[in-house]
Each structure stands twice: as structure tokens, then as C-alpha cells.
Amino acid sequence: MNKDQQNLINCLQTLGCNEEETLVFLKLFSSPGLKASQIAERSGIKRVKVYDLIQSLTDKNLILELSNTKVKTYIAHDLNHIERILKEKIDEFQKTKTNFTQSIPNLKDSIKALSSTTEVKYYQKADVPRILDQIIKNHSFKAIFNPILAFEKNKKVMQNYLASLEKTTHKVQEIISCDQKDVQQMFLRVKNPNFQAKILDPDINFDTDMILYDNQVFFGSYNSQRAIVISDPEIYNSLLQLHKKLWRDL
Predict the structure, then answer these.
(1) Cys bridge to 209: 11, 27, 156, 220, which one at CB 3.0-4.6 A?
(2) What domain range is 20 assigned to?
């Protein structure tokens, strides 16, 4: 196969022809016209499949049926016709590219707006320790919580969590809200660089657990065994800045 023949094949592929369609076109291109049975014989493709290929090539405007024959006979369009089809495709592609390029800023804004859509999930009773366990096991996070209350209401979860702190690979910064020295020391004694804890002023009563992770905010009230998870980047970032400020000041 020479370079010019390969260029023709490349053109047909660009116009959407598969291997069998290309083969049928080439057989027609090198003949004054062929019947379906002749196409099957010369291409080695089953006749029942040839009819589908003829229809597909006709739809692509690459072949046509001769009008002056008793038995349906097909011929390939001339090369100038194919060049016009290719040019139309190129013009269509260029127009699509131009329109797409112009739409990129708006599409980015749309995606950003979509990604910032607020989603709120509500949990209660047994679902609260379940979602809490998932968060502290699987995510790096920053939190403010009262460990005494958390242990009272979710003892198993908190025991497992405390036991895991020495080996956790997640980055955790916790602000502890309680005035019991022995409870404070449980967290301050952890020797894992991935875990850090600071003690909130005991005069500040913070009975709600707030956990910030992956653009989401967990608020849990263990007294009522209810919690919500808010997925919203703006809310997350606002609370994250407050946590950072409080962390620096402690």
C-alpha cells in the first residue's frame, strides 16, 4: 500500500468508517460498480452484513446506487465529492471548537456553582454513632468537642477512637472542651505526630461536636442523639477559618 492509498484510508476513518466499511468503499472505488453479491465475494464479508455496510456508507454519503441497472449496483463517490465532505466536517469541527472555547468560562462557573450546592443529611439515634465512626476512622479532620459527653453517649466509638490515636495516619487537630484534667490528659498524652490536641477554656461550654472534613461539616448533639452533615464549601471554609484562629490562640 502506497502513501496515497493510506491517506485515502485515513480520510475514510476520519469520516467515521470502520474497517469493514473502508474495505467495501475501496472495492467500490476500484470498480465501475458492484452488486451486493460481488461486494461480498471480493471483500470476503458475508452478504447479509454487506447490506448493512452499504446502508451505512450511503448514509455517510460516500457511495450511491446507480440508477440505470436492473439489479441494484453501487459505486463510490468521486474523490472531489469526498474532499467536500471532509471540508464540511472540518468546518463543523472548527465551529464546534470555537463555540466550546467561548463557553469554557461559563462552563467553569456552572461547574463551580454545581459543586457548591448545599446538601444536608440528617441522622438520629443509632445512625449518629455510625456516621461518627465513619468520619473519625476514614478522614483527616479538625474538631471541637466535649469528650466527656461523647464518651457518655457513644462509649464504644470513642473507646475505639482513643485506642487508635497512637497509630492513626489521618491528620487530626482537636480542641477539647472539658474541665476534667484526667480526661484532658488522655488526649494530651498521645505521642502520634498526626494527632494534636488543645484545651478550650473550661468557661466555654461547647457540648456540640463540630467536625470539619472534606468540605463537609458534622454537627452532633449527643444529648439528643441527633446530627447533621452539611456539604457546602463556603460553610466549611468559614468554620475552618474560625477553627484555625481559635487553634492559634490556644
Answers:
(1) 220
(2) 3-77
Cα angle 156, 159, 160 (rounded to 5 degrees) comes to 85
Q: In what order do the strands lie in the sheet with 141-145?
A: 119-124, 226-231, 216-221, 208-213, 141-145, 172-176, 195-199
Q: Which helix (H) or strand (E) holds 173?
A: strand 172-176
Mean pLDDT, residues 84-103: 89
For 123-157, the pLDDT digits (tens) are 999 999 999 999 999 999 999 998 888 888 888 88
Q: Is 186 helix (H, G, I), strand (E, B) or coil?
A: helix
Residue 160 belongs to a domain: yes
Pair (70, 155) in one structural domain: no
What residues are paired with 219 via a beta bridge?
210, 228
Does residue 239 sit in the same domain as residue 130? yes
Q: Which set of grid coordinates corresponds to residue 198?
A: 488543645
- What is the DSSP code (8-state) at residue 158? H
